[in-house]
Design goal:
162 residues, Extensin-like_C, alpha+beta, Extensin family protein, single chain, 23% helix, 6-stranded mixed beta sheet, 3-stranded antiparallel beta sheet
Length: 162
């Protein structure tokens, strides 16, 4: 049985990074760690598809049961690193940074292990490639050093997958 995605509307906020029509996401096919997260509606939809698809991929191709996804957060009022004045997608709650995947056997597969060979490395790369189907922009350790420890998963975007 698949658990429903928990989505709760949050009040609009105003200021430097206004947040309108946002939701707090929790539960679903896999748990999020350390907690729920703020998301635009389109990020919530993309996340629901990715969590479902990631659990299916881990099970069918690697024989693992995905039970959780660790994240570093979603909403943060800031500019894109190195580009002053250009609002980050995190400032609109349109992106989430994923740091690890947790499995039923207790194993935790960290994005920091990106360069690892073998099944773990193959699974990380397969999950990134899958994310590219569910999100409009995905940045991995292959993109730059700023993403060495996480996958940046962004709703919308322009189809960049690295």
């Amino acid at each position: 049985a698949t658990a429903p995605l928990g989505v709760r509307r949050v009040p609009d906020s105003f200021g430097a990074c206004p947040l309108r029509d946002a939701v707090r996401v929790s539960g679903g096919v896999v748990a999020t760690h350390p907690s729920s997260f703020l998301a635009s509606c389109r990020l919530a939809v993309d996340w629901a598809m990715f969590a479902r698809d990631a659990a299916a991929l881990a099970h069918s191709r690697f024989g693992r049961t995905l039970t959780g996804i660790d994240h570093l957060g979603s909403y943060a009022c800031r500019d894109v690193r190195g580009r002053p004045g250009v609002e980050s997608s995190h400032g609109r709650a349109d992106a989430i940074d994923v740091s690890a995947f947790v499995f039923a056997d207790g194993r935790r597969l960290s994005v920091s292990d990106w360069r690892e060979s073998g099944a773990d490395g193959a699974l990380l790369h397969a999950l990134r490639d899958l994310a590219c189907q569910d999100f409009g922009l995905v940045l991995s350790p292959d993109y730059n050093a700023d993403h060495a420890g996480h996958l940046h998963l962004q709703a919308g975007g322009f189809g960049l997958c690295r």
